[in-house]
TrEMBL record:
It holds the Pfam family HbpS-like. Keywords: Signal. InterPro entries: GlcG_carb_metab_protein, PduO/GlcC-like, PduO/GlcC-like_sf. This is Uncharacterized protein GlcG (DUF336 family). Residues 1-23 form the signal peptide.
Length: 166
């Protein structure tokens, strides 16, 4: 049989329990890359690759891994739009540039298992975006001529945009 507690007893129990009065907040503040920031990164990535005569696909994801912006040149293979997004997601998820992640996976049998995670792509070209030590998103480049070139275009975009940001 159900017997409800008297209201006064329930209040006394809640006041006596320190965790009840100092509960953790239900939300946490965080920063993430904006659409404007993503657009500036894509402009800078396109300019950096075009300066070297390369074409590319580029994607930026926010800190939750959601696609914020995507751009691709004419003539870039259609698989590169997906690859750019997956490289960005991988860099975000692992907080590691994907070229370094790929090298680590080749060097370690334990890390090699990362290749079995469907959403990750262990190819160079994905770089995490940090602002004041906080992960705010990632950029991924694909189709510019290989992992080193893809990463160089991504890093050039980051250096260009974040150097100019107050």
């Amino acid at each position: 049989m159900y017997h409800p507690l008297p209201a006064g007893l329930l209040t006394a129990l809640l006041l006596a329990c320190p965790q009840a009065s100092t509960a953790a907040p239900l939300t946490v503040p965080h920063r993430t890359i904006s659409l404007d920031g993503a657009s500036r990164l894509l402009d800078a990535a396109m300019a950096a690759c075009h300066a070297d005569g390369k074409v590319l696909a580029a994607a930026v994801v926010d800190r939750g891994g959601n696609l914020v912006a995507l751009r691709r040149d004419d003539g870039v293979g259609p698989h590169n739009t997906i690859a750019a997004q997956r490289k960005a997601y991988t860099a975000l998820s692992t907080r590691t540039a994907t070229r370094l992640l790929a090298a680590n996976a080749r060097a370690s049998t334990e890390a090699a298992n990362l290749n079995t995670v469907d959403t990750l792509l262990l190819l160079g070209g994905g770089v995490p975006l940090m602002a004041d030590g906080e992960l705010i998103g990632a950029i991924g480049i694909a189709g510019a001529g290989g992992p080193a070139t893809d990463e160089a275009c991504a890093q050039a975009a980051i250096d260009n945009v974040f150097r100019k940001t107050p």
